[in-house]
Design goal:
This protein is α/β, with parallel strands linked by helices and about 240 residues long. It is built from 8 helices and 11 strands. It folds into 2 domains: about 1-100 and about 210-235, Rossmann fold; about 105-205, Dihydrodipicolinate Reductase, domain 2 (2-Layer Sandwich). It has helices spanning about 10-20, 40-45, 60-65, 85-90, 105-120, 145-155, 210-220, 230-235; strands spanning about 1-5, 25-30, 50, 70-75, 95-100, 125-135, 160-165, 175-180, 185-195, 200-205, 225-230. The strands form 2 sheets. Strands 2-1-3-4-5-11 form a 6-stranded parallel beta sheet, with helices on both faces. Helix 1 crosses helix 7 and helix 5 (about 105-120) runs parallel beside helix 6. The radius of gyration is 19 Å and the shape is elongated. The two termini are about 25 Å apart. The relative contact order is 0.17. The structure holds NADP nicotinamide-adenine-dinucleotide phosphate.
């Protein structure tokens, strides 16, 4: 497959390595300082774009890909308020695969989190809270993965009606504490605590390789498909 990389940072480099190992070609790697590559034949004739940039630039990049009819796989977080525009574009024939987290382990963690929230709905003595830790260059807070986890808790746990990105004592609020330090690739924790015990589920990424492999697998899955796709399509859960 001929792949355009948009965003040639930490994830872009890791995706390049894994895509090449799996026999794909990177036909151009677009970064903030060479955006003129959007106007090249290599961009227009590629099979697909993989986009990992920043919350403020992602939407513009998707529009440029759609204008060239290029399917997009993206993992950029922090832009989701524009999701309606992307879904509409998909209804009109574009192809977009999105995951707030591409790692297999995190997607198993999402399934566990949903199941635990469903069970905990019957046990109000447990208070729930979340924590996420990432490297200090991360631009968005809370992480996109933490938002996905929180939304799943809100859907399944009647006693919580909103999430907040600080430690809250209000009964209906789900606290997400975000910490930024060093080079942590991604740590997420959901904790239920009663007076007598606590129950925690944790996902702790060891490197970016799991995210990058997931993005390349998503690209392989997306080729030849249409519409809006996600990890539930790729993994079947
Ligand atoms: N879904 C997942 O599994 C997953 C996993 C990890 C990360 N992420 C997300 O992916 C995004 C990127 O993460 P990262 O760790 O790779 O960050 P990063 O190292 O900062 O890389 C982002 C790259 O995109 C470049 N860029 C900025 N604006 C651009 C534009 N308009 N066109 C092309 N390139 C542009 C940046 O250039 P400059 O540095 O020069 O600005 C940088 O090289 C973040 O939103 C992060 O939260 C998602």
């Amino acid at each position: 497959m001929n792949i355009v990389l948009i965003g040639y940072g930490k994830m872009g480099h890791e995706i390049e390595r894994i895509a090449q190992e799996r026999g794909h070609r990177i036909v151009c790697a677009i970064d903030i300082d060479n955006t003129e590559l959007f106007d090249t034949e290599d961009f227009r004739t590629a099979d697909l774009a993989i986009e990992f940039t920043s919350p403020s630039t992602a939407l513009q990049n998707y529009r440029r890909c759609f204008a060239a009819g290029l399917p997009v796989v993206s993992g950029t977080t922090g832009w989701l308020k524009h999701m309606d525009e992307i879904r509409q574009a998909c209804d009109q024939g574009q192809t977009f695969f999105y995951a707030s987290n591409f790692s297999l382990g995190v997607n198993l963690f999402f399934a566990l989190n949903k199941m635990l929230a469903e069970k905990m709905n019957a046990f109000p003595q447990y208070e729930v809270r979340m924590k996420e830790v990432h490297h200090s260059q991360k631009l968005d807070s809370p992480s996109g993965t933490a938002v996905s986890l929180a939304e799943d808790i809100l859907k399944n746990l009647d006693r919580k009606n909103t999430w907040v990105n600080y430690e809250s004592k209000k009964a209906g609020e789900l606290s997400i504490v975000s910490e930024r330090e060093g080079s942590v690739p991604g740590y997420h924790e959901v904790c239920y605590e009663s007076e007598v015990d606590s129950l925690k589920i944790i996902h702790d990424a060891k490197s970016r390789a799991g995210f990058a492999l997931g993005a390349v697998l998503a690209a392989e899955y997306t080729l030849g498909k249409k519409g809006f796709l996600g990890m539930h399509d790729l993994l079947g859960f």
